[in-house]
Write a structure and sequence with these properties.
The complex is a heterodimer. Chain A is an all-alpha fold. In chain A, about 70% of the residues lie in helices and about 0% in strands. The chains are: A mainly alpha, B mainly alpha.
Chain lengths: ~200, ~280
């Protein structure tokens, strides 16, 4: 499987993003609003697939962009090669913080490590809903995946991040990221083939 | 379901998007929030951000490589051009400075003196070469002619001065003459950019010393040889036989080199005395 299929497409977008990132580093508010317009859908989707609640996802998305701006003002951001990686990293941390504050409400995995490959309890909610279309069926199957696999599939195939960007966000090596992605896709296919 | 079909279906989940109204409202709220926080911090960090921007610009590997290559190639081109520059060229002054720098970083009096002789020899050759070129500017030619005559006269003067000095120290007399001769020619580097009036005065002074010299000292065979060669060089020059004049200068330098190889220790000692 070619995991670098979208890498060439990413290159042009990355160039524009780099220009935008340079402006934001100089505290350009308009550039930051442009970045909001560029990434709000992706970040919302990323968070939505973690919290499974549209309103909660909206609140967290708002907080993520404000946190990103404050982070840029207060910190050296030389560690982040791309703005996208920085925003996703903050989004991921925000979701983790959100679940820590609301512990007991959900048992969603925070880091994916030492996790038993069991379906999330959220799928119980989904089970109560009739999902007949392929679209809803796939979404349902996604919720059955463990958080680590769902997260990497969303990053790669829905939000179309490169392997290096995903590796940076997940704090993994590129090789490890590829392996996780392969396993996640395999697990999802097995789920979709089940009746 | 194949892997491609599965990925295509996953791609369809892109249709999950936030509410458009919420997006618009949130954009405005976000802009207000960042506007409140940005100006104060931006003002305090403007200097730092400028430094960071410059640092990032020069930290780019490709730019660093370009700068490095430019310095290397540019330096080589400039160095080569300056090394081959002739009197009248814009880089000639750079060559003179380069020669002075070479002298400054050369250690050992013997090595230094050898280098001075080499420069003097080069100078004599390039004058002859330049004067023989057809396209040489008339003004430059006149100036160089004047400079050449002045150099010859200075050499004569130096030889005479050595004779007087050698009354108290007769050892290594010939070697001393050679070193003064070399220094006199080296002085000519500066003379070449002097104006013609000064050159005339210098010529007159030099001629005076030259003409009065035989009355004050006795000449050795080596001195006579040098004087004779210098006279011949001047005569050839007056006859516009520039190549011949240059050859005569070469002849003096050859004699100097012969002396140098035959008595290097004495040569070195003499150099110390003249400096």
């Amino acid at each position: 499987m070619d995991f670098n299929a979208n890498n060439q497409q990413d290159t042009a977008g990355e160039r524009d993003e780099k220009k935008l990132f340079t402006k934001i580093k100089k505290y350009d508010k308009d550039a930051f609003i442009q970045a909001y317009d560029l990434y709000v859908n992706q970040i919302y989707r990323f968070i939505y697939f973690k919290v499974n609640d549209p309103e909660e996802a909206q609140d967290l998305t708002s907080a993520v962009f404000l946190k990103t701006w404050n982070y840029i003002l207060e910190n050296s951001i030389s560690n982040f090669k791309t703005l996208k990686a920085l925003i996703y990293k903050i989004a991921r941390t925000s979701v983790i913080d959100h679940y820590r504050k609301n512990s007991g409400i959900s048992n969603i995995s925070l880091n994916g490590e030492n996790e038993i490959d069991l379906p999330d309890e959220k799928q119980d909610v989904l089970k109560t809903t009739e999902l007949n279309s392929d679209f809803n069926n796939l979404e349902k199957k996604l919720w059955e995946l463990k958080d680590e696999y769902r997260e990497i599939i969303i990053l790669k195939y829905i939000d179309e991040l490169s392997i290096s960007e995903i590796a940076k966000i997940l704090e993994k090596s590129k090789g490890n990221t590829r392996i996780t992605l392969y396993r996640a896709l395999k697990a999802l296919r097995e789920l979709t083939e089940e009746k | 379901m194949t892997e491609q079909e599965l990925i295509a279906q996953i791609n369809n989940l892109k249709t999950i998007q936030p509410d458009k109204t919420w997006k618009e409202q949130n954009r405005e709220i976000l802009y207000t929030q960042i506007s409140n926080s940005a100006p104060q911090i931006a003002k305090t960090n403007i200097f730092v951000s400028s430094i960071v921007a410059v640092k990032e610009f020069f930290a780019q590997p490709s730019l660093a490589l370009v700068i490095f290559l430019s310095v290397i190639i540019g330096g080589s081109i400039f160095g080569t051009s300056a090394f081959t520059a002739k009197p009248g060229d814009s880089l000639y002054i750079a060559r003179v400075i380069s020669e002075k720098a070479q002298l400054a970083i050369t250690f050992g009096k013997e090595e230094k003196t050898k280098l001075e002789i080499k420069f003097a020899n080069d100078r004599a050759k390039e004058i002859a070469q330049l004067l023989s070129e057809q396209n040489q500017n008339q003004a430059d030619a006149e100036k160089l002619t004047s400079d050449f005559k002045k150099e010859i006269n200075i050499v004569k003067t130096k030889i005479q001065q050595i004779k007087i000095a050698d009354k108290t120290s007769t050892q290594n007399q010939e070697d001393t003459l050679q070193v003064f001769g070399a220094n006199a020619q080296r002085d000519g580097q500066g003379i070449q950019i002097s104006d013609s009036n000064n050159t005339t005065v210098a010529n007159n002074t030099a001629n005076t010393v030259s003409s009065s010299a035989p009355k004050n000292a006795t000449s050795t065979p080596a001195e006579e040889t040098h004087q004779k060669i210098l006279r011949e060089a001047q005569e050839l020059f007056d006859q516009k036989d520039y190549t011949g004049a240059g050859d005569k200068i070469d002849e003096i330098n050859s004699l100097i080199e012969q002396k140098e190889t035959s008595a290097p220790a004495d040569y070195s000692d003499t150099a110390t005395g003249t400096n």
